[in-house]
């Protein structure tokens, strides 16, 4: 019953050599990418790897993650058993049987039990993939074949052990069955005098399947078994993930139109995707019928890298365009469909960066080819000419404050710059929020001022739409103005302004203490500086919608809810999808200025989700969300029944209106 090393050794050497060559062949393709330092803060990386790779924190966010957790840990345990199996095949003297009984028995019992758990887990995974797949395309022959191979490995292991037990004397068999409680059950299926045949057949089945499985990994999506843990270790820590700053010098190319325009880590993402479908199920563009599919973006990037990587590594031109139609190319409509909400980043178990790969593609289309949706032409011209999306004269920026008197920001004496933003300055509905916030700041005794006509757009939409050139100009001018005026503390009412001033502008050499108005109003109320003499109970049942740029991009979830609770006397109702799992209003990533011609409108889907909670008032903390909800309610003819209010307006109801007589 001993395996023959003279037959197994050449097979093992050939299979191992092929496996290593295949791994090197694929991983070496990432070398065509640009440099990227992902080794800073090793300690934090190790801790995160333990939490997200080994404890599978993100995988367990869904109940089905238990199946993957079981397979993952069974795989780790059985790596030890398979290592012993391979070594025993090469050197028969190496065997667990040489361990002392006190160690041999628990080790064998553990391996036997884990093999059963693995068999149950892969069966459950196969059933789930048939009955309730994460997405329809998940029912692939490759997926089922891999699950079948894992199951076959477990059964072959049971067969080897059962055959050994069947050859023992009856008295020894009972002891062996206690050591192998699962394998011992399979002894009943071995015909008399057929133990050696079953053993040899099971052993060689296990050997061939194990080596076959090993060599299938680099050639399939299951390569993530090898790359996922390193991908987690090398993940980006920055929150939010920011586009790189471009340098506008003669001869430079802008954006990305070939895979070698990405960094080596971004290319490693392509080999680390598990194709679990969580990103596409979270993506508002995909779920509303747009051609964008984050999972498919990564898959097409991998196909493009496999096809073009070898040529690019030799300095030749790409064979297949990265931007285009067909497998291995990313379509322009998909590129423009992204709302940059970050849901894909939040949902990915292995920290693949899907959304950040689209902005460089937009940059190439805008800056190198001047190809972009027609409706963006006015936006770009207005931004470049008058620094606001509507093209309104800059002299109109501060007119909302006429009733409050002159409120200039005075260097050295004004504490906060109230950066109003374009919507808060020019949009008639958002200006009501601006006025309410200003009155609250006055009541609380906050020292604040505005820049008026000197305020420029922060440039968020421009940057996310790929017009980095105009963004760079605005950001440079804003930073110079802030430094000249000695601005250090900034109040914003728009989450897009928040993330741009607080995060993007760090790339331009300025660190600003930027606070969103929902945070500041809560702190003022908690400190007693802003008194709330009444409760805004006439609003009825309030429902809070998370802004993507306030929540996922900047981690601000609790403060808006706590502020609402103080103003209304009750915690707000929650959407079915909220906080980290919140659903976009559809206006991010510059989509505020674009029409939706394909599938359902994202804002209508979100409004319908809100209506399911039967609110009287939907509360937002973003002017874009406010607009999208009001438009959606009008389209659904629900605007007479449900109101949309900003947190500042609700706080103003509680703080500025006189208390009801008791």
Automatic annotation (TrEMBL):
Enzyme Commission code(s) on record: 1.18.-.-
Pfam families (UniProt xref): CCG, Fer4_8
GO molecular function: oxidoreductase activity
Superkingdom, natural source: Bacteria
Annotated transmembrane regions: 6-24, 66-91, 111-131, 143-160
Residues annotated as domain 4Fe-4S ferredoxin-type: 264-293, 326-358
Keyword Transmembrane helix among UniProt keywords: yes
PROSITE patterns membership: 4FE4S_FER_1, 4FE4S_FER_2
Keywords from the named record: 4Fe-4S, Iron, Iron-sulfur, Membrane, Metal-binding, Oxidoreductase, Transmembrane, Transmembrane helix
Listed PANTHER family: IRON-SULFUR-BINDING OXIDOREDUCTASE FADF-RELATED, IRON-SULFUR-BINDING OXIDOREDUCTASE FADF-RELATED-RELATED
Protein's name according to its UniProt entry: EtfAB:quinone oxidoreductase
High-level lineage: Bacteria, Pseudomonadati, Thermodesulfobacteriota, Desulfuromonadia, Geobacterales
